[in-house]
Amino acid sequence: MVMILIKISIIIIIQEINRNVGMMMATIYVFNPITNLMETFNRGLDEPMPYNVGNTLSVREFRANSRTPVVWTDRRTMQSWNTFRAQYGRSIYVGFAFKRIWEGGHTGQSQHYAGNAFDMGQNLTSAGRAAMREVADSSGVWSYVEPANLTPTWVHVDRRFGVPACAAGGFPTLSVGSRGVYVLVLQDALNALGYTGAGLDGYFGNGTRLAVVSFQRAQGLGADGVVGCATWERLTSLANGVGLTSTVVRP
Questions:
Q1: Domains of the chain and any CATH numbers
Q2: What is the CA radius of gyration of the chain?
Q3: Distance (Å) of CA 124 to CA 13, 41, 88
Q4: At CB < 8 A and 24+ separation, what contacts does 195-199 make?
Q5: Which terminus has fewer CB within 10 Å in the chain: N or C?
Q6: What CA–CA distance (Å, rounded) separates 115 from 113?
């Protein structure tokens, strides 16, 4: 009888923990290109992502294995997901999506850090992933669908915005007046490395420019306040996977 009561108590505790975890809130920044504004949402982990249609992508799924309470994406990326998911026609397991650059886990200028990429289908067979990849290709909504020979155990898709600063690809050139998810990546990287003053709002203002100039001077780069290829390469190589430093902004 005592053992039964103990087991019941444990089950109740586990259920309560799961309920509380589901109620945890996340701050979500979404860049809306229609208004050219960064929108802010506060949602529980089990609630749908902003602009998600049909509750097919929860905040928890988008955050995936990231542990940050702050995530971001672009409205156009969510619209691509909606179209792709509707054409695929069934639930999709997302193993990796958003991550902040200081958490690491991806290449320096990965679209994962901008909230524009999904690694999915890890629970499928090779044939199942091939079918998913075919739908992703034919949907025409993704900027890039990675070939199976590069990611044989998952399906990678992403959206990319702007002209890459580097010939090899990556993030676009940024300067005063720029807005969006790439500015958030820039600010996040600068903050993590101790070049504070940029904030974390997705707007490249004077505070961000001063932080960029300070970084460029410290690295022996041309201190023009413009984030081009050389600055992106140096910044992402230093910030990628550096960890949760004391200067990381956590709104």
A1: 2-158 (3.30.1380), 163-251 (1.10.101.10)
A2: 20
A3: 33, 32, 14
A4: 196/247, 199/249
A5: N
A6: 6
pTM exceeding 0.85: yes
| Amino acid making up residue 119 | D
Mean model confidence pLDDT for the chain: 92
> What CA dihedral angle connects 200, 203, 205 and 209, to 10 degrees?
70
CA dist 172 and 149 (Å) reads 27
| CA–CA distance, 236 with 202 (Å, rounded to integer) | 17
* pLDDT higher than threshold 50 for residue 22: no
Q: CA–CA separation, 154 vs 176, rounded Å?
A: 38
For 220-230, what is the mean pLDDT? 98
d(CA 133, CA 154): 9
Long-range interactions of 182-186: CB distance < 8 A, separation 24+: 182/114, 183/208, 184/29, 184/38, 184/72, 184/114, 185/101, 185/113, 185/114, 186/212, 186/227, 186/235
Taking the C-alpha atoms of 5, 11, 12 and 15 in order, what is their torsion angle to the nearest 10 degrees? 180
Token pair in block for residue 35: 């208004």
- For residues 86-94, give the mean pLDDT: 98
Mean pLDDT of 109-133: 98
Helix (H) or strand (E) holding 120: strand 117-120
Higher pLDDT, 63 or 5: 63
CA distance 248 to 251: 10
Report d(CA 179, CA 169) in Å as an integer. 19
- The arithmetic mean of pLDDT across residues 64-85, rounded, is 97
Q: Label residue 221 exposed, middle or buried (CB < 10 Å: 0-12, 13-18, 19+).
A: middle
* C-beta separation of 176 from 209 below 8 A: yes
